[in-house]
Specification:
Distance between the termini: 31 Å
CATH class of the largest domain: Alpha Beta
CATH topology of the largest domain: Rossmann fold
Radius of gyration: 21 Å
Structural class: alpha/beta
Shape: globular
Order of helices and strands: HHEEHEEEHEEHEHHEEHHEHEHEEH
Number of helices: 12
Strand order of the largest sheet: 8-11-12-5-13-14
CATH superfamily of the largest domain: P-loop containing nucleotide triphosphate hydrolases
Largest sheet: 6 strands, mixed
Oligomer: single chain
Number of strands: 14
Helix content: 25-40%
C-alpha cells in the first residue's frame, strides 16, 4: 500500500513516460487514479469485455455502473445501528511504536481508524489481538479487564481480526472454501479430533448463501476465487465465531466497487445486530462514509477523536490531525 508521497511520485513517473511516447496499461481499483492519469478506460466484468471509452466521455457514476452492472446511488450505504454498551476500552497502551493509545468502541457502531501509513493503526489492533506483545496498558472487554497474550485468547474474548493481508494471513489459499470458512471456529466442527464433514458442508453452504460468495461449490479452492469473494470468505470465517468485536483492517483493499458495497452491507448488518466494528482504512472517503466516530493516529499516538456530527468530520480535519495539527 503506497502512501500519499509514493502515489504522487508514481503519477509523476507515469506522466513523464506518457510524454516520452510510452504506451502504459494502468490497472487500478481507485477510480480517482483512472480519471487522473488515463486517456481511455476498458471495463471488464466476470471475464467479459464491457466497454472501452475515452475517460473524458465517462463520469464517476457511469464508470461504476459499467463495472458492477447496475446503478449505485450511494457508494457508501451507511446504515446506523443503536449505540450499545462499551465493548472494548483501551487505556494507555504501549507496544512497539505505540505510545499511550486510549480509546473506546461501542456495540452498534463503526469506529474508524485513520492516519498515514506507519501511523500505528494496524500495530494497535495486532497488540489488542495478542499478535504482538504489549509493554504496558490495559484492555477492558465489556467492562472487565482482559489478559490477552495470544490470538487464541483474543478469539475466546469475542474478538475477530480481519487482517489486511488476506492472502498471506487470512486464508489458506490451497484449501477449499469450506475449510477456510471454519478455520476460526474449527472446535465447533470437531469431536475427539475428527472433523464433522456434514456439519462443515451445511455451515459453509449457509455462509456462501448469506454472504453471496460467488463460487462453483464449497469445495472450490480459495485461491481460485476473485479478490472480493476471497474477502467475503475471510469475513465469513470470523462471522462463524459469533464475535462481539470485529476488526476490519483495510477491508476493501484490492476489490472492485461492487464487492466493496457488499462488504459495507455486511458491516451494516453486524452493527445492526449490536456488534462492534473497528475499521482501519487508508481511504478517507471510506472512513467518512462508513464510520460513526474516527480515531486519527500519527507516529503511534492518538491525535484526535472525531464524532460523525462534529464540524471536524471531514477530510481536511482528518488530514490535518494525521500530519500532527491541532483541531480547534
Amino acid at each position: 500500500m503506497l502512501g500519499e508521497k509514493e502515489v504522487f511520485q508514481l503519477m509523476s513517473t507515469v506522466r513523464k513516460l506518457k510524454e516520452q511516447g510510452v504506451a502504459i496499461l494502468f490497472v487500478s481499483h481507485k477510480l480517482e487514479e483512472l480519471f487522473e492519469i488515463c486517456d481511455r478506460v476498458t471495463v471488464m466484468r466476470d471475464g467479459e469485455h464491457i466497454c472501452t471509452k475515452k475517460v473524458s466521455d465517462m463520469t464517476n457514476e457511469s464508470l461504476i455502473t459499467a463495472m458492477v452492472g447496475r446503478t449505485l446511488d450511494d457508494r457508501f450505504p451507511k446504515e446506523f445501528g443503536v449505540k450499545g454498551e462499551c465493548m472494548i476500552r483501551v487505556e494507555n497502551l504501549n507496544a512497539g511504536i505505540l505510545r499511550n493509545v486510549s480509546f473506546e468502541a461501542y456495540g452498534g457502531q463503526i469506529l474508524g481508524f485513520a492516519g498515514l501509513v506507519g501511523a500505528g493503526r494496524t500495530e494497535t489492533m495486532r497488540a489488542i489481538f495478542g499478535a504482538d506483545p504489549i509493554e504496558s496498558g490495559a484492555i477492558y472487554i465489556k467492562g472487565k479487564k482482559a489478559n490477552i497474550n495470544s490470538p487464541a485468547q483474543a478469539v475466546a474474548q469475542g474478538i475477530a481480526f480481519l487482517t489486511e493481508d488476506r492472502k498471506g494471513q487470512g486464508l489458506i489459499l490451497s484449501q477449499a472454501v469450506s475449510i477456510n470458512l471454519i478455520l476460526a471456529s474449527i472446535k465447533k466442527f470437531s469431536k475427539f479430533g475428527m472433523l464433522n464433514n456434514n456439519a462443515i458442508h451445511e455451515s459453509s453452504n449457509r455462509s456462501i448463501h448469506s454472504l453471496r460468495i460467488k463460487t462453483p461449490s464449497n469445495n472450490e479452492i480459495a485461491g481460485q476465487l476473485s479478490g472480493g469473494n476471497q474477502q467475503k470468505v475471510v469475513i465469513g470465517k470470523w462471522i462463524n465465531t459469533d464475535a462481539d468485536i470485529y476488526i476490519f483492517d483495510e477491508p476493501t483493499r484490492g476489490i472492485d466497487v461492487g464487492a466493496k458495497i457488499e462488504v459495507y452491507n455486511i458491516m451494516n448488518s453486524l452493527v445492526k445486530k449490536g456488534k462492534c466494528v473497528i475499521m482501519i482504512s487508508s481511504e478517507l472517503p471510506e472512513i467518512l462514509g462508513m464510520s460513526d466516530r474516527v480515531i486519527v493516529m500519527r507516529e503511534g499516538r492518538v491525535m484526535a477523536e472525531i464524532d460523525r456530527g462534529s464540524e471536524h468530520f471531514n477530510q481536511e480535519s482528518i488530514m490535518k490531525a494525521g500530519w500532527g495539527g491541532v483541531l480547534v
